[in-house]
Amino acid sequence: MKKALMLLTITLIVVCTLCPSSYVRVAAENDDKTKLHKVKNPIPDQYIVLFKTGVRGKDVDKFATKLAKDNNGRILYVYKFIKGFGVEMTENDAIKLSNDKDVEFVEENGPVRTTQSSCPNSSATLPGHYGVDRLDQRYVPRDGNYCPTRTGRGVNVFVIDTGIWPTHDDFKNPDGTSRAAVFYDAFGGDGLDCNNHGTFVASTVGGNLMVLPRKRISMG
After folding, report:
1. Residue 137 phi/psi, 5° resolution?
2. Which phi and psi (to 5°) does residue 209 adopt?
3. Most-buried pick from 103, 107, 121, 186 (CB within 10 A)?
4. How many CB atoms lie within 10 A of CB 47?
5. Is the pTM above the cut of 0.85?
6. What is the pLDDT of residue 147?
């Protein structure tokens, strides 16, 4: 499996090098050259200020007080854990504050709402979503829900990856047997996973912790 692992490592390095960070994407949505981020439904004159990582936790109160005073603001909250604070001020003052050397960015404050789906297995209830919305419908656009109408019984899924650990607890059936199996090792080995990536991917398809049909998977 060493050759397979080497190929995988090279692939990951190339992909990560080409992918822009989420911060670059967010910043690109702001046409002006300030570090003021906009939200869809802002609360008027309320902003969240995030300090740069170089600011020490014990200095957050002092820095927040000074910045609010210097920019005609009124402190609403101080967040020591994430090193930031909430402040009430005008947009012009918020733009000015965002350009301070110790500030990472300033973002408009706004409400965050949850949605309720009529589907008991809605993808909104899954940690990180995992892209399961694609599994229960063939055509786009996606409906944002995971509502499968089939169980997956009798279906074998073949995952091409770094191997698999068939004995992992995530693949155990109620009777103690495993629904996972090594199907083929292209390098003549035993197909067991010495990298863990293949086992992780396979568990997303048919593991006990995922709200997906759990019948049988095979690993190539």
Report:
1. -150, 140
2. -85, -10
3. 107
4. 26
5. no
6. 72
Domain boundaries, the chain: 32-108, 127-220
Q: Which are the contacts of 110, defined by CB distance < 8 A and separation ≥ 6?
A: 39, 40, 41, 42, 43
Q: Please tell me the distance from the alpha carbon of residue 64 to that of residue 74, in angstroms, as a whole number.
A: 10
Q: Which residues pair with 37 in a beta bridge?
A: 107
| Alpha helix ranges (H) inside the chain | 2-18, 22-28, 60-70, 91-98, 197-206
Contact of 216 with 30, CB cutoff 8 Å:
no
One-letter amino acid identity for 29? E
Q: CATH homologous superfamily of domain 32-108?
A: Peptidase S8 propeptide/proteinase inhibitor I9 (3.30.70.80)
What whole-number distance in Å separates Cα of residue 47 and Cα of residue 34?
Answer: 14
Nearest to 124 by CA among 148, 136, 132: 132
DSSP 125-156: GSTT-TTGGGTT-SSSSP-S----S---TT--
Determine which of 32-46, 75-89, 197-211 has the lowest per-residue pLDDT on average.
Answer: 197-211
Asked if 154 and 202 count as a contact pair (C-beta separation under 8 A), the reply is: no
Q: Position 149: which residue type?
A: T
- Per residue in 33-55, pLDDT (tens digit) is 678 999 989 999 999 999 999 99
